[in-house]
Amino acid sequence: MALGSLESPSRGVPVTAAEFVVVANRLPVDRIITPDGEEIWRTSPGGLVAALEPMMRSVDGAWVGWAGQPDLDVPPFEADGIRLLPVRLSAQEVEEYYEGFSNDTIWPLYHDVIAPPQYHREWWEAYVTVNLRFAEAAAAAVAKGGTVWVHDYQLQLVPEMVRNLRPDITVGYFHHIPFPAHGLYAQLPWRDQVLRGLLGADVIGFQRAQDATNFLAAAKRRLGHETKATTIALPDGRTPLVKAFPISIDTTPYRELAQRPDIKARALEIREGLGNPKRILLGVDRLDYTKGIRHRIKAYGELLDQGRISVEDAAFIQVASPSRERVDAYMHLRDEVELAIGRINGDHDTLGHTAIRYLHQGFPREEMVAMYLAADVMLVTALRDGMNLVAKEYIATRADNRGVLVLSEFTGAADELRQAVRVNPHDIEGVKDAIMTAIEMPRHEQSKRMRSLRKRVLENDVSAWSRSFLTALEDAGARNRSGAS
Ligand code: G6P
């Protein structure tokens, strides 16, 4: 990816007002210091960057975000045609706003309390302080009558804050993760403040229709606002739109890389390196407790124990990229996953074959595409996931219409990708059967399903997503400017 290779951003670009400002917790690049002390900027993790980067290149825009390290003062700079406006976070703010409130309170709460959310008042204070800093940076960067597009759960207060600072602009918000049912959401001690924060936007976009419904219900119950099908009537006369806009990927690089002879050769080399098994299964996730990695491993281990598969016939590659490593729940998960894999491999490996090839690393996109090409079966068994873009990446690479996607019904992607083999990841017997169905699926059926999955993904790519969000935002902004008191 172009940004990944960026080594020395031109510094000190003068900040002129931008028509369009994206606000996200992370900049699209993270600052990394190599072992020999060199500064490089690498594409930051997660689906958000991949989703927005292509759109940002095509507009006169700026991106407000954090450079991924504490106590780092970086002046505004430009990277690959995108103007970047870094927000500084102190070490304590990283702990309380990012690791704490964002990733140990909101993240588990919004993912249906798979891990227990921690509620701490100091974390909330830090969240308010940091959200205000992002809002001020966006308000200072946006041109008169311009647009600010706020992203994700780390910044839920920014829409209201930025609107208060700049009533002349249009504000959009897109929520990349699930929004929970009221029975869970109601746990949040600051539930009303968060709703008010989000309602500062003209469009509040979600991944699934269910997320939008949950939000509308919460706004009605908690704040007493009147809701129509997809709008909320606010006392100030504004009527924000609340709707699902399922996100997707930029399919072009995946399709192109999948055709490259060197990457096809690399896929064969991967198969070779695993001892030429009949079937390769693949899981690709951030190492996160929402992803159902343990459930998948348990099911796979039982299939081996029962002799339904053997290490000679099948190899399972699990890529688990390091994530949020200072948060307790993530440390525990890593221990559990590694213990489980170690046991399974100890029981089943031979000198020539490994049951589960576990890679606690991130890989460049080229290598990921080679793995997607090598994989006969892709396993996505998330317990809860806003969308899951890995499922769409896999599909985008399968130009020959071969390969099977096993997909959890608790992902946003399951609403769209109906031809996948669907699983309830909590049902271990069901996961085992789904894995066997995928392994044994005849070619013609693979091809029938993959053809329809590809049609869906290729037609609804990320530019279709951003276009539909931004068109809705333009309409809602105009409506609210004329309606607001
Ligand atoms: C998810 C979130 C993103 C986040 C990404 C990576 O995709 O929706 O907002 O950036 O995970 O997590 P991290 O905490 O490393 O930014």
From TrEMBL:
Documented EC number(s): 2.4.1.15
Pfam families registered for this protein in UniProt: Glyco_transf_20 (PF00982)
CDD domains, sorted: GT20_TPS
UniProt keyword annotations, A-Z: Glycosyltransferase, Transferase
GO molecular function: alpha,alpha-trehalose-phosphate synthase (UDP-forming) activity
Residue runs in coiled coils: none
The name this protein goes by in its record: Trehalose-6-phosphate synthase
Organism from which the protein derives: Microbacterium bandirmense
Lineage: Bacteria, Bacillati, Actinomycetota, Actinomycetes, Micrococcales
